[in-house]
Amino acid sequence: MQCQQCDKQAMFHITELETGDVRELHLCEDHARVYLNQAEADSQQEDSETAGGPLGVGQTAKELSEIDQRVCDMCGITFFEFRNQGRLGCPHDYVQFENELEPLIANIHGEVQHHGCRPNREKSVGAEAVLPESTEELTRVIGMRKEIRDAVEGEDYESAGKLRDDIQKTLHKWHAENSKN
Amino acid sequence: MKFEVLKTSVGEWLKGTGPESDIVMSSRVRLARNLAHYPFVGRASETERSEIECFLRSHLKKTSVGSHLEYTNLGGLEDLDRQFLVERQLISREHADATGARGVAIDPAEQVSLMINEEDHLRIQCIHSGLDLEAVWAQIRGVDQEIEAVVPYAFHEQWGYLTACPTNVGTGIRVSVMLHLPALVITRQIDKVFRSLHKISLAVRGLYGEGSQAFGDFYQISNQITLGRTEGELIAQVADVVPVLIDYERRAREFLLQETEQNVHDQVSRAFGILRTAQTISAEETMQLLSRVRMGVLLGLVDDLHVSDVNKLLVRTQPAHLQKMRGVDLDTKDRNIERARFLRSYFESGSPDDN
Questions:
Q1: For A15-33, what is each residue's pLDDT tens digit?
Q2: H or E element, residue B332
Q3: What CATH number was assigned to the domain covering residues B3-241?
């Protein structure tokens, strides 16, 4: 039997008995581990008055497992990898995983809005991008580098060249080119 | 890096000067910053890490602060030299133990250090002797502003400065004050103090050793929250509690003197006696005894010794410092012998290696 979450063979056959509801799950080893860890975390969360954990109450294990599969378009990290390592992959993760991160950040800091200093690039000579609302545009370069690698692998050198130009344009706009020295 | 110069000196911050320096060893602020156009360090490839290092290094040179700093490539150092920088609090233990392209830029006074490719692309640290958080903040903010004029930090309208770990997001600031609290430890009030600090979401940890039983009674108080409040508010949160702790510690010291002066004097004298005569001594024991002696000096129970001497010894008796002074690698057993020898000669002739 195949895992319900991926193409691997299902090694774990779990029957969940919830109030008035019987659910069967067939999972490979990896997905079972995710599922069981999450189930354990959920039950701990109910016991704990501090109600920690990145994920909201009321989500089913299946939903949680789907969240874990989400991938950042820029750096390619999965939410599962983040949960395991406790470190994000790139600045774009804060945008890509915003819904998942918000409850986690609220839990850590008790707030979800920055109220401190902000970059002031006015002093920087000739930069077009003064006082950015966010540097998301520049962060897209991370994804473009990945696209170049993919294009080169697929021997699509034309696209790779165009992407390189696009990156240079973005970096130039932000004065973020590498110095020649 | 001129380790030969560093090894017989201690950084400005350990000189035992500055406000309240009888109890407050140092005030420190660090800021976590990342480049917008690279993955965070943990996710970056070898090549990307080299590019990040190169980018930051060359752009830091364009700032007036950066041009005064001395840059050290950590990957190119021996373990011992990295350990040496950890002992001086110029880099973190994680930064020392990591692999791949990484480095640190340090100012000659050892107040400012810029760690490249630590957990975040850039960690700016500023440290002063005594209780001096406002001056530390003014200095580090100046450094940060100079750098952000030439480097595009990852920033988001809602989340603030973006960091590899969500526990640092927002301001990216960690404000910490290192305190010497021997009387609160002796009078067994320290745990009570810590519990009340945790309630107002401040973190406490021993400088050396684990948990609340820190070697040498040195404790670091720092903010835990980084998002939703301004840097000024977060600094005030730490700064407001320090005078209270100072007051507790002073009262506990007075209490010890009034109620048990003979006992305290005896403990301090014995500690001093061991430090002056031991033939082999561990780093932990040295730390404990120096802590006792430091309190004794401040209570007027020890003659001919200054607090700055004790502060100096706290750093110079640590493993990497001993080995750098001796000029050879030593195992634990030989280090303990060397440490005892160094202490004996220090107390005999002032500071032999300073001449």
A1: 666 555 666 777 777 777 6
A2: helix B332-349
A3: 3.30.590.10
SS (H, E, C) A64-92: HHHHHHCECCCCCCEHHHHHHHCCCCCCC
Instruction: Kindly determine whether residue B164 and residue A124, on different chains, have CB atoms separated by under 8 Å.
Output: no
Task: List where CATH 3.30.590.10 sits in chain B.
Answer: 3-241
Q: How far apart are CA B29 and CA B112, in angstroms?
A: 10
Residue bearing the bigger pLDDT, A90 or B207: A90
Q: Does B173 reach chain A within 8 Å, measured CB to CB?
A: yes
> Looking at the predicted structure, is the pLDDT value of residue A173 above 60?
yes
Q: Quick one: what percent of chain B has pLDDT higher than 90?
A: 77
Distance between CA atoms of A109 and A117, rounded to whole angstroms?
A: 17
DSSP secondary structure, B8-45, as one string: TS--GGGSS-STTTTTEEEEEEEEEE-BTTS--GGG--
Give the residues across from B129 on adjacent strands: B26
Report residue B169 as tokens: 């997001």
The residue-averaged pLDDT of B182-199 equals 91
Bridge partners, residue B33, by sequence? B122
The candidate with the shortest Cα–Cα distance to B234, out of B165, B160, B180, is B160
Answer for the pair B14, B315: CB distance below 8 angstroms, yes or no.
Answer: yes
* Whole-structure pTM value: 0.84
Question: How far is residue A108's CA from residue B164's CA, in Å, rounded to a whole number?
Answer: 15
What CA–CA distance (Å, rounded) separates B25 from A36?
Answer: 47
Q: Find, in chain A, the residue whose alpha carbon is nearest to that of B162.
A: A91
A85, B228: Cβ pair inside 8 Å? no
